[in-house]
Amino acid sequence: MNKVVKYRVLSFITFFIIFLIIWSILNFTFEDMYGAYKAMISGGLTAILAPKIYSQKTQSGNQYQLKWIFLKKPITF
């Protein structure tokens, strides 16, 4: 498994964990809200808060960066 695949898996796992946290908060806070609305709100907020992978072309080839709203500097790999 190369580095890009590892970081994509890491990104997916963090996306899933953030989604579950937001969904459980909505589940306990708004008990009367339908499940589809909870899922849509959770998915939208998770898409904003989850880390994203960007590729950048350099002289040495493609360099991938993991950017997250909570980190000031991107993680380069």
Characterization of this structure:
This protein has 77 residues and is of the alpha+beta class. It has one domain. It is 55% helix and 21% strand. It has two helices and three strands. It has helices spanning 3-29, 35-49; strands at residues 52-58, 61-67, 75-76. A three-stranded antiparallel sheet has the order 1-2-3. Strand 1 (52-58) and strand 2 (61-67) form a beta hairpin. The longest helix is centred in the N-terminal third of the chain and has 27 residues, at 3-29. It starts with a helix and ends with a strand. The model has no long low-confidence stretch (mean pLDDT 87).
Which key terms come to mind for this protein?
three-stranded antiparallel sheet; 55% helix; 3 strands; alpha+beta; 21% strand
